[in-house]
Amino acid sequence: MALPLSPPADRPTLADGLSSPVVDLRQYTLFPGTRDRFVELFDTEFVEPQEAVGARVIGQFRDLGDPNRFVWMRGFSDMPARERALKAFYNEGPAWAAHAETARSMLIDSSDALLLKPVRPDSGFALDDAARRPPIEADLPNGIVIAAIHHLERPVSAEFIHFYETAVLPAVRQAGARPIGMFETKYSANNFPRLPIREGENVFVAFTGFASLAKHHEYLTALGRNKKAWKERLYPELTSRLLMPPQVLRLAPTTRSQLRG
Fold first, then answer.
1. Sequence-ordered strand ranges (E) for 77-131
2. Whether the Cβ atoms of residue 58 and residue 20 lie closer than 8 Å to each other
3. C-alpha angle with apex 46: 108 to 106, nearest 5 degrees?
4. Long-range contacts: 99-107, Cβ < 8 Å, 24+?
5. Residue 205: what pLDDT?
6. Which of 8, 101, 207, 243 could form a disulfide with 151 if both were Cys (CB 3.0 to 4.6 A apart)?
7. Confidence of residue 103 (pLDDT cuts 50, 70, 90)
8. Is the pLDDT reported for residue 16 higher than 70?
9. Are 98 and 88 in contact (CB under 8 A)?
10. Could you read off the pLDDT of 115-144 as tens digits, one per residue?
């Protein structure tokens, strides 16, 4: 579901249960050659057990820019629910107890994680609770998800959001992107310290979806041809607000990912 420039009255919100007000965005670095095995383990053993204790596995992905990186997102209804779910899964759950050693044997680093919240209630992920999660033997989806992580000196301001929604979003839509979520840092203490998060950072994360990698390439070409508006005005204006150029993750959903581009 694409994001509107301004939320219409009938737009579903987080209160409707379609999205998670608290999201962990996690990037794992794996030993070379182990990613496919890690994906199989994760999708087979770690999805339903997490959701059974109150977490929502939003999406899990192979990073197209790094063959050794696995990226995934997990959502919660609030911070107390996050603490309860993580304690239940990691401290008490049989799935983690049975497979933790295997998972750790493939992991170099699992500490690259951001705690996020939607910039407003209707900018979270709109996922269909009624949709059946595909089985692991399903075909890989064609779609891809792009996560653009913007680092700011200060917390995301209303002025930044206004600029992004009224200037940047129309340009990326016109070039062929489908906006699917906008998030910012959630400034809450990590209530499960066993899993580190990157604290002290001010980020704005924009997610867009594409029907295929080829469609994403067409989008980049269209942006590049939009020299006067995008290359000479909008992108320089965007990056002038940032500490560094956006970090862009090109994410290919696994067979069981609900967020699919």
1. 107-118
2. yes
3. 20
4. 99/41, 99/45, 99/46, 102/41, 103/38, 103/41, 103/42, 103/46, 106/30, 106/31, 106/34, 106/35, 106/37, 106/38, 106/41, 107/28, 107/29, 107/30, 107/31, 107/38
5. 98
6. 243
7. very high
8. no
9. no
10. 999 999 889 998 876 567 888 888 999 999
Amino acid of residue 182? M
- pLDDT of res. 261: 84
CA torsion angle for 69, 90, 47, 81 (degrees, to 10)?
A: -110
| Token digits of residue 232 | 């000479």
| Average pLDDT over the chain, rounded to an integer | 91
- Size of the chain, expressed as the number of residues it contains: 261
Tokens of 13: 């919100």
Number of H helices, E strands in the chain: 8, 8
Nearest to 27 by CA among 57, 63, 64, 65: 63
**What is the amino acid identity at position 21?**
P
Encoding tokens for residue 89? 């899964």
Rounded to the nearest 5 degrees, what angle is found at the Cα of 145, between the Cα atoms of 77 and 228? 120
Q: What are the b/e assignments for 166-204, b being 16+ CB within 10 Å? A: eebbebbbebbbbbbbbbbbbeeebebeeeebeeeebbb
- Global pTM reads 0.91
Other beta carbons within 10 angstroms of residue 59's beta carbon come to: 25
